[in-house]
User: Fold these one by one.
Assistant:
Number 1:
Amino acid sequence: MFPAQIEEYVRPTTVAEALAVNARYDEGDALFIAGGQSLMQALKSRMARPRCLIDLQAIDALKGIEYSDGVRIGAMTRYVDIAADERLRGRNAALRDAAAHVGDRQVRNRGTIGGSCCWNYLASCTPAVVLGLGGRMHLVAADGTRRVVPATEFLIGPLETARRADELLEAVSFAGATDRGGSAYRKWGLVKDALPVVGVCVCVELDAAGRCSAASIALSGLAAGAQLAPAGAALLVGSSGDATTLARAMDAVAAAVEAQSDKWASTAYRQQLIRTLGADVAATAFARATA
Amino acid sequence: MQTVRITVNGTQYEEAVPPRMLLVDFLRERLALTGTHVGCTYEGVCGACTVHLDGEAVKSCMLLAVQADGHAVTTVEGLSSNGDLSVLQQSFREHHGLQCGFCTPGILMNMTDFLARHPEPSDDDIRHGLIGNLCRCTGYVHIVKAVREAAKTLAGGAG
Ligand SMILES: Cc1cc2nc3c(=O)[nH]c(=O)nc-3n(C[C@H](O)[C@H](O)[C@H](O)COP(=O)(O)OP(=O)(O)OC[C@H]3O[C@@H](n4cnc5c(N)ncnc54)[C@H](O)[C@@H]3O)c2cc1C
């Protein structure tokens, strides 16, 4: 298998240049390539047949993690770099949980947070974590217009996002570390570190007394794509993360979701995975919030 | 056609390639470096085509040759020097880390990068590091052993 004919390959060093090349082509005829760990499969299967590839590898402004009031992760930051960054802790620790177990070492050496979010594959880890942590997507268009879209609006559904064809994702940002915030992510797949059949992300904020003041739960692996589970999250609020509450919250999540039945897992098995993984992930998130 | 300059195993090659040419095909068909294998026909799951791009393990079926323009690639042919096997290669030989050998080049490339970053790995670390390489002969036991013994040898040599 190899890609269909590609007329032009460019490697710009600035975002403006990348967008200018993109603007020369009709919608879909030019594609950005980040780590290529999803796009190369699509090119080789010829699901995608772009005339032009715009390689983002040499745009330094898209790489790296900045810490100020919040945390800003450049779109071209790779899994290997996210997994290794110990400053992503407390309420942002789930980013490292996910990045450290994406696929395998070779995939983590190439794949990026931006590529994963823009692809928004249903069985993927990053979109669910970005949702669970309340991520914000920083987009820039060819005319220089910038907009910030909450992940809840950006991640529309499998292989669909709110990014317009003339826009590039520059970064994903998150709230900074708080005194009592914690998050975690875990998935289950057919083999270790494989694509998630089900993955659960939990993020909690505790008050001075150790009670949960805000919570979110996000899921990966479901047919409708990465999604929040607000009914379950509401049950965590006010609790101190005791096992009974965690189990009740995850029962509510499992009961509320539409979990598909396919060759990987039945609906009942997916619901059981949500309960089991979910309780464990929530306990880790609470523990990190008090650490 | 696009002209690329890619340094492979220390030698710079300048070649005109179509943009759609995969890096693995460039290595095998243009440079006749057939040690890099194609296992899963390019889905990116088997790891047999693993090479180093600027020192890091990557799957060469998931990259275009044009993306490697200006970069350094190391293939399995570049691991030995003057005919002397690397410590990891020697360890695979001593500890029977291969049977049919098809997956071996990719495993050697991945684990060379792995050992550089994890000089004192546990067996769990090694198994986790091997996820991106499928071996259908060995059951991995001897591969894990070969990597573990290589780590010991390298640590001994350094200390
Ligand atoms: C063997 C294997 C195992 C995997 N396992 C997992 C797993 O366990 N969990 C998981 O979540 N994923 C997994 N993946 C997928 C992996 O996470 C991909 O890296 C990711 O989905 C895509 O990121 P990328 O940087 O490689 O993007 P690319 O493949 O380069 O691009 C993906 C899409 O995003 C667009 N794009 C990229 N960057 C931008 C940008 N800045 N602005 C606008 N558009 C952009 C591209 O045009 C393309 O359409 C696996 C992949 C492989 C090959």
Number 2:
Amino acid sequence: MDVKRKVEESAPPIVRYKGISKAYGDHQVLDHIDLDIRPGEKIALIGPSGSGKTTLARLLMTLEKPTSGTIEVNGEQLWHMERKGKLVEADEKHLHRVRGQIGMVFQHFNLFPHMNIIRNVMEALVHVQKLPKAEAEARSLEMLERVGLKDRTHHYPSQLSGGQKQRVAIARALVMQPRIMLFDEVTSALDPELVGEVLDVIKNVASEGEMAMMLITHEMDFARDIADRVLFTDGGRIVEQGPPEQILEHPRSERLKLFLARFRRHFGDSADVMTAVGLE
Amino acid sequence: MQFVTPLLEGLKVNLEILVVSTLLAFLMAFLAGFGRLAKYRVVRGITLVYVEVFRGTSLLVQLFWMYFALPAMHVNVSAMAAAIIALGLNYGAYGSEVVRSCLLAVPKGQTEASIALNMTYPLRMRRIILPQAWRMMLPGFGNLQIELLKGTSLVYLITLADITYKGMILRSANISQQSLIFAWMLVIYFVVAYALVLLIRYFERRAAVGRG
Ligand SMILES: Nc1ncnc2c1ncn2[C@@H]1O[C@H](COP(=O)(O)OP(=O)(O)OP(=O)(O)O)[C@@H](O)[C@H]1O
Ligand SMILES: [Mg+2]
């Protein structure tokens, strides 16, 4: 299945990182990152552990505050706002307004254990977007159907498999209709035989959506299938980026070559088999 | 059986104190529990002082303070009010530790998922964090509730005619039957405590719905 769509080359970016740095104490995790993501663009982030991939996503989701630099979402400052002609730190109200365009799916699902599945998906529609309950429920059911879980709506998260939980989490994020969605290693916590069903759902979403996506993943085949662009991060910088074929087949930098070689040695065969099984 | 009626009369005082001071203790537990986690250092500092003072001194001394020391400072409180305030503040201090630790025990991922769904702080507290923390608080609150009940037996020391006071009066008039009198007091305390245990179990069962 060809999931890639034409991305408007000329459209203004939906997300723009500008000189973004993040440090924890002396530890520089991100080092002057510049990155534009165009509307509808699917980018994959690969890179060694600790290279700052998760941090990059968390800064956009407002779970972590940048040390310096700015992020724009749809042309609007995220962490800053204008006051008396000056750019000042954003307050909670401003964050709330801009954050609505961003969604995120986590490695460990983070479903709400005290709510059943349909409630998990409806919750923010009703209480954040203030939709009437009936409409929120209808939209949630539709979304659960899309991820293949329509028959599980009244189960609780503890009664689902890992793959099912992650599909609920995807539905919960999707139903909010974000302009950009962040997926942080969403299959890493799953048993190998459950990876495929989750990747299928994401592929499916990617194929029809105007929604931009940032995929942090160790599934190289998946990245190749879905991404318009692959970015390789190392030491808090984007070291190399380009179309998947170029990055994965013809790496230029030594670090990327080393990363891919190591990666293949570690996960190589089994990873390929897993994705093949999952995606057939 | 002739002892039971006066003892039950005294029990009414204990129950009245129990109910009202429990309400006060809940209020204080949540105020101070959230206060300990507040953004502002001043708030955290003030709550810490309250919690440590009331946990670090005995309930009996606090009762005496409310009843004997405050009037000396021209603050007049009835014995009943003194008992309720002392018990409420004392167990509120302990309860705040339960509230604080259970709020912290809700996994961080729950807060992060709520933020990712653009929930405001009050919304995610009310709908996501508190319901999960509440379930963890119940056993701790249950223990404190029983402790509070037992604590009410001290109020006769500030002149209130509670069950212990009635027992002492009965005992001095019927010294040969003191074992029986104390036995009745035990039974009555136990029955009330057990009723509380059942009530708490009911809440725990209700809070556990849907989770394995
Ligand atoms: N809250 C924090 N406090 C201190 N250091 C942190 C914190 N969060 C992340 N780090 C550090 O920042 C660096 C980058 O972390 P990050 O999670 O972004 O890496 P990553 O590329 O996602 O790695 P992985 O592939 O292991 O998920 C790591 O060295 C990590 O230890
Ligand atoms: Mg990570």
